[in-house]
Design a protein that fits this description.
Blueprint lengths: L2 H16 L3 H14 L4 H13 L3 H14 L4 H12 L7 H15 L4 H17 L3 H17 L4 H14 L9 H16 L7 H14 L6 H14 L5 H13 L4 H13 L4 H13 L3 H13 L5 H13 L3 H17 L6 H17 L2 H12 L8 H14 L2 H14 L4 H13 L3 H14 L4 H14 L1 H5 L1 H14 L4 H13 L4 H14 L4 H13 L3 H14 L6 H13 L3 H14 L4 H14 L2 H14 L4 H13 L3 H14 L4 H5 L1
Helix pairs in contact: 1-2, 1-3, 2-3, 3-4, 3-5, 4-5, 5-6, 6-7, 7-8, 8-9, 8-10, 9-10, 10-11, 11-12, 12-13, 13-14, 13-15, 14-15, 15-16, 15-17, 16-17, 17-18, 17-19, 18-19, 19-20, 19-21, 20-21, 21-22, 21-23, 22-23, 23-24, 24-25, 25-27, 27-28, 28-29, 29-30, 30-31, 31-32, 32-33, 33-34, ...
Length: 669
């Protein structure tokens, strides 16, 4: 076949392809290859025809042969790209990306429009594969090409926005290079917007700031973006809120942070981050109740702020709301689990605070939970304070040997640490070794004099050591006063001050004040509540007694606060208000249905009200629960007599006389 015949055969092959006669085209190409086995165009036409005849392997082989012959010729690369783009081609995305890369190289010096089209296709392919770095780098080349061609600012702005859209899911991948390219795209988009200020620009800025807030190491860039946005949009609270949350979550409570909190609070008193910031400021100023109130309110309006939950837990611990504090620590830890920040600082702080708080709850289950929390702290084994907390947890669980072992190790390795001596003190105190406990707590106070708990435990040690130390003003009383001064929310210190003033100093008025304070601090403290009510009655101050009882009963759920219902019921009984007495004594029995004395009092209230049959049932129930209650048995007999049940009455009187021969009321009956 001559050169002329080869050209004619190739023309026939091209015409056959144009007329969709693909088999005919293959014949012409094969004839050419017999003569010229390295004919580039023949291989390209075979690829094209085979592809149309759905013979992909033959097509691929033909194109690759052509590429091998002429690597920098476009036709074969274009044909291979068209083949790989067909829907029936699977598992070729990697190969297709390589083909697009080559096409970009070949188009670069020539057809710019085709270069852009291939670039778009390559980006789309990378995006499907979630190869965000390749997406970013390729799209940036497209923008660079457009800039070199002198594209309009508006077109470039749209390209930067498209790049942001393409990379919006890349923040989950923790790839620093992609992250920097995304932030760079945001900066270009923000600065190239047409209308500044304007709604679109405002939303773009918000997205930029939101994106920056996901990267803890971009603090400086975040601050700059927020400040720049505030300059452009001075009435918008969003950048200020983000800045507040940044300061809160980074634990930075500088003048700058406090100024930020104040500024947002002035702009919008309902802003969640602003309210949280105000709460943290209150915590710093030791206004703990206000801190709890503000932090709780702020957290209801703010998503994902683990640090604020930690600050709330801290404030709750300060006012001895330990169970609430544990729940807040759990919320902080849950939020930190979702967060990408690898910094273990907050997590360790939350776990330690949770463990310390659980120890104050002081039961075995809480101690077990405390031990589990301590096990999760990174670097806990080298921290002596955490070892001391673990020792207390073992002590609360009743594992004395483990607690003692930790105590001995700490005293040997860290003799200057207050917590080492305090742990030893707790162990001695629990074993009633009061002399040794005194020495340990004095050592702890010498090293950390401002810890209320150490003074309180030293006070308790003196209280139980002997009558002499209990009565000595310089011992128990002094320590309880110091504890109460250092921690005005330590209800138990006020309770023991009440005991001192009542039982030793004989100062009922001052004692009543201390019990009242202890009860106000902890409404679950029935001993303090009862003592405050009893002393108010003794002092003739029924108004105070009733106000305490009314407050408790108003808040009480059914089946609780027995002591308050009982006290108020007995007051109504004594003051001739039997109907109110009946209602309160019934409420007390819901809390404790087996209290025979309460049943007897209820019987008396029914009797005074004239409800004889019900009174009889109550007295009988009292005597069933406690057969030694002679008054209830007698009252039941008297009521049977009154109701005309003489046989029953006689039998009951005889039962009384068998037990007590000279019980005059029964003899009379």
């Amino acid at each position: 076949m001559s050169n002329k015949e080869v050209k004619a055969a190739l023309k026939s092959a091209r015409d056959a392809i144009r007329n969709k006669e693909y088999k005919e085209a293959l014949k012409h190409c094969k004839a050419v290859l017999k003569q010229e086995k390295n004919n580039y165009n023949a291989w390209v036409f075979i690829g094209l025809a085979a592809a149309e005849l759905e013979q992909p392997d033959q097509a691929k082989g033909a194109y690759k042969k052509a590429i091998e012959l002429e690597p920098n010729q476009l036709l074969a690369w274009q044909g291979l790209a068209n083949l790989y783009e067909k829907p029936n081609q699977t598992d070729v995305k990697g190969d297709l990306a390589d083909v697009y890369q080559k096409l970009l190289e070949l188009y670069k010096s020539g057809d710019k429009q085709k270069w852009c089209d291939v670039c778009n296709k390559l980006v789309e392919l990378y995006h499907q594969e979630k190869k965000y770095l390749e997406v970013a780098e390729t799209w940036q080349k497209l923008i660079q090409m457009k800039e070199e061609e002198g594209a309009e600012k508006a077109e470039l702005h749209q390209l930067w926005k498209k790049m942001i859209h393409l990379l919006k899911d890349s923040t989950r991948n923790e790839d620093n290079k992609t992250e920097q390219l995304l932030l760079n795209a945001f900066e270009h988009a923000v600065n190239s917007a047409d209308t500044i200020p304007g709604e679109d620009h405002q939303n773009l800025y918000k997205d930029f700031i939101q994106c920056l807030s996901k990267f803890p190491h971009e603090a400086a860039r975040l601050k700059k973006a927020c400040n720049d946005m505030m300059t452009l949009y001075p009435t918008m609270t969003y950048p200020l809120e983000v800045l507040c949350l940044h300061f809160i979550n980074s634990g930075t409570l500088s003048e700058e942070a406090l100024h930020c909190f104040s500024r947002i609070f002035e702009m919008d008193t309902s802003s969640g981050p602003g309210i949280i910031g105000f709460g943290i400021k209150c915590l710093q100023e030791k206004k703990y109740k206000e801190a709890v109130k503000s932090l709780t309110e702020g957290l209801q309006k703010t998503n994902q702020c683990p640090a604020a939950w930690y600050y709330l837990a801290e404030a709750q611990v300060k006012i001895h709301k330990h169970r609430n504090a544990v729940l807040s620590c759990n919320q902080a830890l849950e939020g930190l689990g979702i967060s990408k920040d690898p910094n273990f600082g907050w997590k360790n702080l939350a776990l330690q605070l949770k463990a310390e708080t659980l120890i104050k709850i002081a039961d075995a289950d809480a101690a077990e939970e405390a031990i589990k929390a301590l096990e999760q702290i990174v670097g806990a084994s080298s921290d002596p304070v955490i070892s001391a907390i673990r020792g207390q947890a073992y002590l609360n669980k009743g594992l004395m040997d483990e607690a003692s072992k930790i105590s001995q190790e700490l005293l040997s390795s860290h003799p200057d640490l207050a917590e080492s001596h305090a742990l030893e003190g707790y162990i001695h105190y629990s074993q009633k070794n009061y002399k040794q406990a005194e020495r340990s707590f004095l050592n702890a106070i010498e090293r950390k004099a401002e810890t209320a708990e150490y003074h309180h435990y030293l006070g308790l040690t003196y209280w139980f050591m002997s009558d002499e130390t209990k009565k000595d003003k310089g011992k128990a009383l002094t320590q309880f006063l110091k504890a109460a001064k250092l921690d005005s929310y330590l209800g138990n210190a006020f309770f023991y001050l009440g005991n001192y003033y009542r039982d030793i100093a004989g100062d009922k008025s001052r004692a009543r004040g201390c019990y009242k304070k202890a009860f106000e601090l902890d409404e679950m403290d029935e001993e303090s509540g009862t003592a405050a009510v009893d002393l108010s009655v003794e002092l003739g101050d029924m108004d105070t007694a009733l106000s305490i009882l009314n407050e408790v009963t108003e808040k009480a759920s059914p089946g609780t606060a027995k002591w308050a219902w009982l006290h108020r019921g007995l007051y109504y009984l004594r003051s001739g208000q039997p109907s109110q007495a009946v209602a309160d004594l019934q409420a007390a029995l819901r809390a404790d249905p087996k209290d025979s004395d309460c049943w007897e009092s209820l019987g008396e209230a029914y009797l005074n009200r004239g409800s004889y049959a019900t009174a009889l049932k109550s007295f009988r129930r009292a005597s069933e629960l406690n057969p030694g209650l002679m008054y209830s048995i007698y009252r039941a007999a008297a009521l049977e007599q009154m109701l005309g049940k003489y046989d029953n009455a006689i039998t009951t009187y005889q039962q009384i006389l068998k037990k007590t021969e000279n019980y005059v009321p029964a003899l009379k009956g």
